[in-house]
Amino acid sequence: MTSTTMPMLGTYPQPINLDRTHLAAAIDALIACSQACTACADACLSEDTVAELTECIRTNLDCADICATTARVLSRHTGYDANISRALLEACATACRACGDECARHAEHHEHCRICTDACRACEQACRDLLASMS
Amino acid sequence: MTSTTMPMLGTYPQPINLDRTHLAAAIDALIACSQACTACADACLSEDTVAELTECIRTNLDCADICATTARVLSRHTGYDANISRALLEACATACRACGDECARHAEHHEHCRICTDACRACEQACRDLLASMS
Amino acid sequence: MTSTTMPMLGTYPQPINLDRTHLAAAIDALIACSQACTACADACLSEDTVAELTECIRTNLDCADICATTARVLSRHTGYDANISRALLEACATACRACGDECARHAEHHEHCRICTDACRACEQACRDLLASMS
Amino acid sequence: MTSTTMPMLGTYPQPINLDRTHLAAAIDALIACSQACTACADACLSEDTVAELTECIRTNLDCADICATTARVLSRHTGYDANISRALLEACATACRACGDECARHAEHHEHCRICTDACRACEQACRDLLASMS
To answer: Smallest Cα–Cα separation from A86: which of A134, A28, A21?
Structure first.
C-alpha cells in the first residue's frame, strides 16, 4: 500500500504548524488502526465464542470511529486550532490504549486480536509522539 | 423529525451507567449539530465571499466529524468505558465551542452561520451537562 | 428533537435541484436510521443470545455507515452531481431493505429490533421517494 | 505505511466469498483515496483561488465519505450480502470517476489535485476490478 499522506502534506499551499514526520506517521497509523479495528470487530463477530468477545467488539467499534475522525481532523490544516487537535489526540490515545488492552486479552487465542493489539499500540504511540511534538 | 434515541435506550438489555435524560439529549444534540455543520460548510462554499469563510468551513468539517463520532460512541453501552466517553466529550465540547465562535463571526451576514452557531452552542452545553452528570 | 435540516436548506445561497420536502425528509430519516442501527447493533451485542444475532449486528453496522454517508452527501448542494446522489440512494435503499428484513426476524423477541425495523423501512421509503422525485 | 488489510483477511474465522487479492487491493485503495480527498479538499480551501475550486472541494468531500464507508463495508464478512457490496461499489466508482475528473481539471495548477486524481483513478479501477470478480 502506497500512502500519499506525506506527498499530500508537501502540496499544502500554506505553512503547517506541526512536525510533518510525526504528523504523517500519526495519520497513517490512525488509518491503519481504524481498518484493523473494523476488521477485528467483524472477525470477533464470526467466532464461535462471540459471547466472550462482546467488549472487544464494542471497543473495536469505538476505536475505529475515533481513529477515522482523528485522521480526518489531522489531514486538515486550514485555520488550524491546536486545542481541538490536542483534545482529540488525547481521546484517541485513550481509546487506542483501551482497545489494545482488550484485544491483548484475546491475542493468544485469536490472531486478529493479536494484529489489532499491535495496530492499537502503534497508533497510541504515534498519537502521543505527535502530542509531545506539539508542546 | 421523530427521534428514536430515548426509546432505543429503553430497550438496551443491561443497565446503563449514565443519566438517560442527559444521554439522550446529548446524542440528539450531537446528531443535529453534525448535520448543521455539514450543511453550513456547504452553504459557505457556495457564498460569493467563500474566500473569507475558509476557516469557518474547516471548523464546520471538524465539528461535523467529531460530533458524529461522539454520537456513535455514546449510543453504545456494552463494555462501557467512562475514560473514553469523558475524553471524547471534552474534545467534542472544544470543537463545538470553536465552531460556534467561528460561525458567530459570520452570523450577521449568513443565516446558515446563525443557525449553526445555535446548534453548536446547544451541543456544547449538552456535552458539558452530560460530563457534569458523570462525575 | 428539533431538526434544523429544512431551515438549513432555506439558507443555501444558490438554487437546489431537488424537491426540498423529499430531500429534508430523506436526510432526517437517514440520520434517525443511522442512530437506530448503531444502537440496535449495540443492544444485540448485549443480548444473551448474541450468537444468533451476528448477522443482524453486521447489517446494522453497514446500514449505520451507509445512511450516515448518504445523509452527508444529500446535505451538500454545491456542484450537485445527480449520478452520485442517485447511485448512493440506490445503495442506501438496498442496505435499509436488508437491515429492515434482518431486524424484522428478531422484532418479536427484541424491542430494539422492532424499533430499528421501523426506522429502516421509513428510511428506505424516504430514499425511494427522493429517487422517484429526481427522475 | 504497512497495511494489515491482507493479514487481517487471513485471520477471519469463516470463508470469505470474494477474491482476497482484489478485496484487499480495493480496501487499501479506498482508504488511500479517502485520505487523499480529505487532504485535497483542505488544500483547495487554502488556495488563493478557492472560489474556482468549490466544486472540487465538494466532490472531494463526497468521495472521501463514500470511500471511507465502502472500505468499512468491504472489511466486514459476517452475513455477507452481495447486493449491498455491489450497489455500494457502483456508487463508489461513480464518485471516484466524478472526483478524478474534477481534480484532473486542476491538476496542472495544483499538485494536490494531480495526486488526488491518481488516487481516484486507482480507486475507481480497484472498485471495478472487485465488481468484475464478483460476477
So the answer is: A134
